[in-house]
Amino acid sequence: MSSSYEWDVVVVGSGFGGSVTALRLAEKGYRVLVCEAGRRFADDEHAKTSWDLRSYVWLPAVGLYGIQRFTFLNGLVALSGAGVGGGSLNYSGTLFQPGDAYYRHPQWAHIADWRSELAPFYDQARRMLGVNADQPLSEGDEALRRVAERMGAGGTFTKVPVGILNGPIPGQPVEDPYFGGAGPDRRSCIYCGACMTGCRHNAKNTLPKNYLHLAERAGATIAPMTTVEAVAPRAGGGTRWRRCRRDRGVDPGRRSPLIRWYSLQACWRPSDSSSG
Length: 276
Known about the structure:
4-stranded mixed beta sheet; alpha/beta; 2 domains; 3-stranded parallel beta sheet
């Protein structure tokens, strides 16, 4: 790649899509920059409750840089994640695969045997995200089972597949259980129920614990508190893009001077492929 380009690939957003892209391209040797509007969180920096607005809500205009973004649309409020790891920081950790009805949908069932086509990619994603159903059943789970049985639907009750490190001893430190030492050390779930305000106990398999961790080891650079404002063709080939950097602690709405155009080589080719 030409050294006149600062990056081969700029990935906008560090959520599930962006993190997979960053890792797989970094593994191929591309110079990858990941721009994330939100900040990077240490586990103990997550909010203890959703009332801790400064650590939970994303609203930079008033100085809030938490993980929960609210987008108000016409008659709809969309919830998404903010921070390095995107929506993995504030989703509940449930990771279902679609049922037969999905694969048989008339819009696409005739195109391919999608169950077979997608199976290896689901398998890869499950391994990367540490999907399991090893959590113990709570009193609430048992009550739900009894209700299902009274309704004649007891056979539909099952444990929920989750991307959380469950172990025999809650809160037990565990050496990297997923990537043979290439990943971070972890701690088993204590079942506090705080998955959606941000796991403070190193148990939830958020993207900084897997895809993004490995992407950085492979050479990718993550730029938190960085918003891509524009993308445009570059004279002579490639692409240029403009970013702004928001620093925590500045006046609400104020942007620091790090606003400029950067060069990006258009390097993606149809023959390139990656998997989860």
